[in-house]
Amino acid sequence: MLFATGCGNSKTTVSYTYKVETGDNITISLTTNDGYELTSDIPFVISKDKKELSQGIFISAEYFTAYVDSVKNNEKAEIIDEGTKSDCSYVMWNYNDSEFNYVVMINGTNTGMLIANNISEKSAKECFDRLEIKVKE
Question: Is-above-0.85 flag for pTM?
Answer without folding.
Answer: yes
